[in-house]
Amino acid sequence: YKTGELADRFLASMAPPGQLSLLYFANQIYSAGNVVLNKALAAPMVPLLARKAFEKNWLMFRQISHSRFLWTLGICAAILLCLFFSGPSLYSFVFGHGRFSIDEIVTLHYLLLTLAGVWVGGALGQILASSFYAKGDTVTPTRIGIFGFTLGLGLKAVGFWLWGVLGVAAGTSLYYLLNAFLLKLFLSRKLRQRIADVPQRT
Predict the structure, then answer these.
(1) 153-186: per-residue pLDDT in tens?
(2) CA-to-CA distance for 84 and 20, rounded, in angstroms?
């Protein structure tokens, strides 16, 4: 996974000066937000899910996981709406005190919007991967992560060729969203099988 950052830096190094730093900064903003959401929603969920998995209460397991999934999705959507409607004016107020030019602030705005998939997919991926781990399955999320990451390298390269740094951001977003989609798909299938196989407690 560390080679992902290396690939981003290699591609962005061929872009105009300053855009590599802006891409890295935008990624760091979303990474910090994902850490907060992970500690607030994903991490506290794991003991609850592990208990339900031990009890083989898969209906409640699915309900808890789905509830945290929806909460996370709602928070991510609300933050993105704020970023979209506030626009560069918010970034000028927060970051524009001599540190960024107007052009850099506008570029940062577009990068944050293009990297929205990192914010949403990363946060949802934490909820879904934690659900897999709580029921003792570490193989499925790892395989999905390897597949998505490998595909993501290609998406970033194609994106850079088409749209420069914004294309790298778009490729990264698609990779995160694809991972979250596959995690949700496989988790839903596995839980349906568990629910069908095990009589539920009333």
Answers:
(1) 899 899 999 988 999 999 999 999 999 999 999 9
(2) 22
The 3 state secondary structure assigned to the chain is CHHHHHHHHHHHCCCCCCHHHHHHHHHHHHHHHHHHHHHHHHHHHHHHHHHHHHCCCHHHHHHHHHHHHHHHHHHHHHHHHHHHHHCHHHHHHHHCCCCCCHHHHHHHHHHHHHCHHHHHHHHHHHHHHHHHHHCCCCHHHHHHHHHHHHHHHHHHHHHHHHHCHHHHHHHHHHHHHHHHHHHHHHHHHHHHHHHHHCCCCC
Model pTM? 0.88
Residue 102 CA from chain centroid, whole number: 28
* Unique residue bearing structure tokens 């998505």: 148
The model's pLDDT over 69-78, given as tens digits with 9 standing for 90+, comes to 999 999 999 9
Residue 30, token pair as written in the block: 């979303």
Contacts 24+ apart (CB under 8 A), 129-134: 129/183, 130/42, 130/43, 130/45, 130/46, 130/49, 131/45, 131/49, 131/61, 131/65, 131/187, 132/183, 132/187, 133/46, 134/45, 134/46, 134/49, 134/50, 134/53, 134/61
